[in-house]
Design goal:
The chain has 86 residues and is of the alpha+beta class. Helix content is 29%, strand content 24%. The chain starts with 10 loop residues before the first strand and ends with a strand.
């Protein structure tokens, strides 16, 4: 984002086979700056259901959280988060 001088990020979607937590930590500066809408896959690790929303909430940016589970199976659970500015 800095290298390519991207001025604003308005949406971040992650479904990267269990690397969501590390990638999310790497986007902290961008999230703080731009407060983008988020769609983060949670189903690769049960701990992600706790640590990912907690991390976003602890940024104190006013995010509201929504879960979508699109199948009858244990996969495809996605955390959506947005601020009131959206």
């Amino acid at each position: 984002i800095e290298t390519n001088r991207i001025e604003k990020v308005d949406f971040i979607k992650m479904d990267i086979e269990g690397a969501e937590w590390n990638a999310l930590k790497g986007t902290e500066k961008t999230i703080n700056r731009d407060k983008p809408k988020l769609a983060i896959a949670l189903y690769h690790s049960t701990k992600d259901f706790d640590i990912i929303p907690r991390f976003i909430n602890d940024l104190n940016l006013g995010y509201k959280f929504y879960l979508l589970h699109a199948t009858i199976y244990g996969e495809e659970t996605v955390l959506f988060a947005k601020t009131d500015n959206d």
